[in-house]
UniProtKB/TrEMBL annotation:
Native source organism of the sequence: Pieris macdunnoughi
InterPro entries per the UniProt record, alphabetical: DNA/RNA_pol_sf, Rev_trsase/Diguanyl_cyclase, Viral_Replic_Matur_Polypro
Organism domain of life: Eukaryota
Membrane-spanning segments: none
Biological-process GO terms, alphabetical: DNA biosynthetic process
PANTHER family: POL PROTEIN (PTHR33064), RIBONUCLEASE H (PTHR33064:SF37)
Name of the protein: Reverse transcriptase
Length: 95
């Protein structure tokens, strides 16, 4: 395959060893060892936690988002002002 420029040697950490195995019908099956690639790939935590995303509920390219009563931005996490307005406007007790 290398003679036909289908594959080429690589020392990249992203490459995986490939072995071709002949099947019963004489076609070839690629057998690839992805263990090294899996070791450096971030795991899909959403899938493992059985969480699903809804495209209509997702916000992309925003500087800040409101989530569960908090504002999450590049500056960190803070309380959503709309959620604490009643507490802030609560009358001060008098004697």
């Amino acid at each position: 395959m290398s003679n036909h420029n289908v594959i080429e040697a690589s020392s990249s950490p992203w490459c995986s060893p490939v072995v071709l195995v002949k099947k019963k019908d004489n076609s070839l099956r690629f057998c690839v060892d992805y263990r090294r690639l899996n070791d450096i790939t971030k795991k899909d935590r959403l899938h493992k936690a059985n969480l699903k995303l809804s495209a209509k509920k997702c916000l992309f390219f925003k500087r800040a988002v409101s989530y569960l009563g908090h504002i999450i931005s590049e500056d960190g996490v803070r309380t959503d002002p709309e959620k604490i307005v009643a507490v802030k406007d609560w009358p001060v007790p008098k004697r």
